[in-house]
Amino acid sequence: MLTVDFSRFPLAPGDRVLDLGCGAGRHAFECYRRGAQVVALDQNGDEIREVAKWFAAMKEAGEAPAGASATAMEGDALALPFPDDSFDVVIISEVMEHIPDDKGVLAEMVRVLRPGGRIAVTVPRYGPEKVCWALSDAYHEVEGGHIRIYRGDELLGKMREAGLEPYGTHHAHGLHSPYWWLKCAFGVGRDGKDAALPVQAYHKLLVWDIMKKPLATRLAERALNPVIGKSFVVYATKPHLPDTSTAAGPAAEGASESAKAPAKSGAKAPARSGAKAPAKSAAKTSAKTSAGAAK
To answer: What's the confidence (pLDDT) of residue 129?
Structure first.
C-alpha cells in the first residue's frame, strides 16, 4: 500500500533514494523495483533486518532491474550518516508526526538532498486524525506514538522555512480512515481474532482491495480521498543555488532592467519517467505490512 504516488513523483532508474523512517519498507521496495539505488533507514533494528531480508529475496527473484541497489540500515533521522547532497530523492512517509524535533528532521533531509532533488513528505491528515484522537487516547498516547496533528498549511510552511519549494499535494487512503475510526471506537489494542467483528470485517475488505484492486473500490477511494483521505502528501524540490560565477563587466552595466529582473520562482514538477509498473508481488508485500497500519 503506497502513499506516495509515483505518477506525481517520478523516479528514474539510477536515482539515489533515501527512504527515511522506512518502517516495513513499502516505498523502499517500490523504488528498488523501479531501478533506483535505495537506502532504507530506520531506528528500529527489527524492522531493518526484515527489510534487508525482503531486499535479498527481491534480488534473488529478479524483481529489481540491472543497476538497482538496496541497502537497509539503522540510523537517526536527526543525525543522518551521509555527506551533503548525497541523494536525488528523499521519502519520509508517516514519520514526522512521531518526532518532537520535526524542524531538525527537515533540516537533515534538505542537507543530504542535492540541489534540484525531490522530496516526498506524508503525514496523517488533520480531519481524520482528529477523529482518531477524539475516539481513543490509546491511539496516540503510546511510546513512540503520534505527538502532533499537522494542518496542511502548517506542514507546507515548515517545508518552505527549511528551504524547500512545494510543487504538489494530494490526499490518500480514503478507504482507510473508517477502518481506524472503528479500531479507535472498539479498542486499538485488539488485533487479529481479538479485534471486534466490525474491525475484522473491514480489515478483510482492505486486504482484498490491496490484493485484487477491483475497479469498484478504486473508484470509491478516488472519490473519498479529497474528503476523508487518511494521509496528506506533499511533493517539493530543493532549489539550485543562485549562480554567482558570472562576472560583471561594461556590457552588464548597460543591461536592460528586464534582463536584470529575477527569474520566475516556483519549481515545476519533474517530467514523468518511464518507470516500469510495480511487480505483482508488490501487493503481497503491502498486504504483509498490514492494511493501513500507522507507524
So the answer is: 97
**Cβ 14 vs Cβ 69: under 8 Å:** no
Q: Of 186, 188, 208, 209, give the one whose Cα is nearest residue 198.
A: 186
Distance (Å, whole) CA 5 – CA 10: 8
Query: Cα 195–96–105 angle (5° rounding)?
Result: 150
Measured CA to CA, the distance from residue 71 to residue 51 in angstroms comes to: 9
Mean pLDDT split into 10-residue runs, the chain, 295 residues: 95 97 97 98 97 97 96 97 98 97 98 98 98 94 91 98 98 97 92 89 95 94 97 97 55 39 38 39 41 42
CA distances from 211 to 5, 70, 110, 214, 248 (A): 18, 25, 35, 9, 61
Q: How far is CA 113 from the centre of its chain?
A: 15
Q: Who's near 50: CB < 8 A, 6+ residues apart?
A: 24, 25
DSSP character for 294? -
Instruction: Report if pTM > 0.85.
Output: no
Residue 86, Cβ density class (10 Å: 0-12 exposed, 13-18 middle, ≥19 buried): middle
3-state helix, strand, coil split of the chain in percent (to 5) is: 40, 20, 40
**Beta strands in the chain, from DSSP E residues, in sequence order:** 16-20, 37-42, 69-74, 87-93, 113-124, 165-172, 231-237
